[in-house]
């Protein structure tokens, strides 16, 4: 008697696709005991049929989406192509045809998640995307299931490995941003065009997805304020050390009574915070819930096999749902419609570094401007740089973004302020 | 029309039970949107009906288990009494009656897990126990689902908050073990009889459960070698600092080709390892899988609400399974029968501190004894303590436990060795 089989199609055979293909083969011997059936990749959608692909059964390759869509034996579609189109259309096609979908596509989920989850719900299909956030780290399922009894107020993540690697090198080996970026590129952590990483766009997509799930209310990428790490200097890093802190690019989401705050920006964070010890290209997501208190999830945020681990975890879950006829069991959990707070109204502490004329009364003038704009000062450090010029570091209490912006605008007009060198938020 | 209700009974109303009761009430308004039905605690089993319990509806209390067992409307039993009996019998009764069970009982799961899971499988019931390991930290579900595509070779956990608090105080505030224990008792972290915590028994139960799930093979508490932290001294902590390490009580499980290694003991661990920065009473579990690489789960390992968070996460999962008629969907995942390695055959690195006579040739003699017993030395630090006495610290390479034991036995007989002060493993 032939064994029962669950057939899946793979869309895309890049880094993640190859990882998924390899991993499913590696687990062949245990899959039946894990899900009660064999799991088989029966078709792989690729762009170029002629490219040689080592270790891949060439007879599975096709460049025709219809062939997969119309194959009724294929119950699961694994989308690992990335990008919005044609991924979006194909996933919608698949869900409408009653196929379950697993995806690693953060761009797509961060922008069209609602549409895709709605289509899944309509067809009672599973639509899972653990791999879209923080690679191999389990975070979507813990939020949707393990922490489902919590009112989650805060999600903060180091969710971009490239920038965390760069900041670690700057911090531990005193590299400049440019040197650390070059090193990251050399090691393959950074892409030829590193904009999406270093400007916080990649992290912004992930934090949109996490905020949606944690707060049960839809947050899309366009809602996320983003600021990158290109302006961070060795001088900032040195002050961070002096303040017993590190600088990390954080995706920050808070659920407050006046709306959801969501952004990505570099922050000084005290070295005793669990996120501070997340080094190199590792990722981590820190969550605060009213019952669980603080929790953190740490691991590899990218890479062929770590991402494949998350994809296969989802595929196994779909297969179990198919076996137990309970697909669609956990679909969209965004049952609230919370407002997104304008970023100007968000409150943050700030670390400000500026070059000022070294003359009496300057600090008093600066303090007055801050006072006028409701900015309270928590700490001031002044260091003489040259005879007539001093470096001033001011750490504020929590202030609204627009109050600080206004104050800085006024300071920039002052003769005694030579340069505002750094404006970095503090956790 | 009355809303659909899922009824549950709570067995026990101690710290965790009270937390679960409170938390379910706190989530009343969102439960229907979360699980598609209302969730109601309809009976609570307590020992003493007369005790006043603030905030608890007294009409729900009963001291009669049969009353709950025979109530056909009760679909879920939440066992938070702790201990082996009567918890074990009641859970078996409940499962045989087709009721689903959620428990926080590590003692029971570590010893009778197989029996309980078998009973659950037989009745197609859910039997979930996320709260039994590391309190609020999601670890069971991530291992069973998110990381299901991995071959997991290593699980290492700081899974006892009391001892982690004590070691943190010893490390950061130079307290002695006794001082730190007194502080932990004062804060309610340590119980009147702290044996189960400080001797590693509590951690041993948790590591047995985690090893079973991670390696798909049954490990019970009796398989776990345990050693506590009572012998750790300020001198050991000082050396750990000198070696850029901390000392942590770790539950350690490895899946090797020659069997499962499982134990609990204090270890020196490099301060760059993610577990090293887990402070105070926090817990964390570090996992290595062939696909996911390194991952870590961090949070509160105990306490009323963190534990209730894990319990309610499980209850919500059961309720969703009831709604989708797929209870029993993920039951026992121990489909292998791997041998447990005798602890004497496990290999470890060791940190050894000893007081020796300060005379020529002593080190040569010690080195010879180690060599005779196949113990390779990685590092030696000698410090003169007094004129005729020196403190010697030796760090070994990985050696089999029994080889080290034999070597130490021989060293103890030597005239020039005054005392073997510490024997601590190193990660």
UniProtKB/TrEMBL annotation, chains A, B:
Residues 351-425 form the ACT domain. Keywords: Amino-acid biosynthesis, Methionine biosynthesis, NADP, Oxidoreductase, Threonine biosynthesis. Its EC number is 1.1.1.3. Pathway: Amino-acid biosynthesis; L-methionine biosynthesis via de novo pathway; L-homoserine from L-aspartate: step 3/3; Amino-acid biosynthesis; L-threonine biosynthesis; L-threonine from L-aspartate: step 3/5. It catalyses: L-homoserine + NADP(+) = L-aspartate 4-semialdehyde + NADPH + H(+). InterPro entries: ACT_dom (IPR002912), Asp/hSer_DH_NAD-bd (IPR005106), HDH (IPR016204), HDH_cat (IPR001342), HDH_CS (IPR019811). It comes from the Bacteria. Its cofactor is a metal cation. PANTHER family: HOMOSERINE DEHYDROGENASE. Belongs to the homoserine dehydrogenase family. This is Homoserine dehydrogenase. It comes from Faecalicatena faecalis.
């Amino acid at each position: 008697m032939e064994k029962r089989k669950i057939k899946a199609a793979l869309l895309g055979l890049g880094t993640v696709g190859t990882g998924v293909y390899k991993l499913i083969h590696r687990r062949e011997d245990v899959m039946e005991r894990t899900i009660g059936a064999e799991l088989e990749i029966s078709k792989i959608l690729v762009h170029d049929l002629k490219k040689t692909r080592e270790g891949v059964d060439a007879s599975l390759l096709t460049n025709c989406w219809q062939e997969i869509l119309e194959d009724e034996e294929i119950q699961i579609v694994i989308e690992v192509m990335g990008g919005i189109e044609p991924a979006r259309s194909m996933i919608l096609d698949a869900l409408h045809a009653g196929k379950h979908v697993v995806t690693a596509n953060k761009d797509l989920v961060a922008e069209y998640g609602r549409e895709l989850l709605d289509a899944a719900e309509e067809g009672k299909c599973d639509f899972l995307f653990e791999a879209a956030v923080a690679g191999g780290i389990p975070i979507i399922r813990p939020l949707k299931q393990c922490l489902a009894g919590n009112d989650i107020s805060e999600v903060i993540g180091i969710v971009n490995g490239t920038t965390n690697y760069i900041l670690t090198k700057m911090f531990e080996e005193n590299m400049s941003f440019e040197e650390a970026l070059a090193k990251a590129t050399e090691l393959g952590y950074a892409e030829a065009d590193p904009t999406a990483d270093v400007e916080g766009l990649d992290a912004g997509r992930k934090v949109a997805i996490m905020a949606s799930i944690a707060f049960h209310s839809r947050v899309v990428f366009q809602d996320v304020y983003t600021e990158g790490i290109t302006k961070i200097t060795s001088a900032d890093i040195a002050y961070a050390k002096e303040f017993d802190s590190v600088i990390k690019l954080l995706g920050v989401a808070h659920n407050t009574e006046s709306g959801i705050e969501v952004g990505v920006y570099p922050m000084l964070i005290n070295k005793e915070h669990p996120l501070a010890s997340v080094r190199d290209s590792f990722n981590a997501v820190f969550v605060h819930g009213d019952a669980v208190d603080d929790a953190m999830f740490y691991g590899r945020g990218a890479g062929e096999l770590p991402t494949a681990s998350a994809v296969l975890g989802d595929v196994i879950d779909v297969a179990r749902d198919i076996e137990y006829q309970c697909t669609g069991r956990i679909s969209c959990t965004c049952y609230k419609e919370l407002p997104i707070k304008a970023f100007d109204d968000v409150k943050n502490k700030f670390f400000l570094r500026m070059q000022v004329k070294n003359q009496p009364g300057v600090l008093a003038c600066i303090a007055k401007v801050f006072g006028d704009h409701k900015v309270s000062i928590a700490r001031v450090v002044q260091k003489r740089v040259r005879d007539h010029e001093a470096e001033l570091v001011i750490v504020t209490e929590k202030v609204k973004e627009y109050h600080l912006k206004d104050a800085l605008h006024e300071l920039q007009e002052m003769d005694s302020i030579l340069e505002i060198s750094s404006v970095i938020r503090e956790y």
